[in-house]
Description:
Number of helices: 3
Order of helices and strands: EHEEHEH
CATH topology: Alpha-Beta Plaits
Organism: Weissella hellenica
Protein name: MTH1187 family thiamine-binding protein
Number of domains: 1
Number of strands: 4
Strand content: 25-35%
InterPro entries: MTH1187/YkoF-like, Thiamine_BP, UPF0045_domain
Family: Belongs to the UPF0045 family.
Pfam families: Thiamine_BP
Shape: globular
Mean pLDDT: 93
Strand order of the largest sheet: 2-3-1-4
Helix content: 40-55%
Amino acid sequence: MNTLISVAIAPFGVGDELSSYVDEIIGVIETSGLTYKTTAMGTEIEGEWTDVMSTVQKAIETLTNKGIRAYVSLNADIRPGHTNTIETKLQKINHKLEG
């Protein structure tokens, strides 16, 4: 079942500079082979539900396995029969905006 999520995973209690932790988290997502896009506020990941959620779990564990508290914000769009919604949703919006 195709799943598109938006997820933000952040460490707590490690100071103000988070980029090294975020880099590790993105590395886990990248090695999953799933389609993803990272923005300043989070990452969108698309694929089969079990693959997406397994990747999120592994990404969270990059923090928790070090004893670091993880804050996770996740939204999901589960749409059977559709694929590549990470691109097509934006294309539809852009088409309507252009007019």
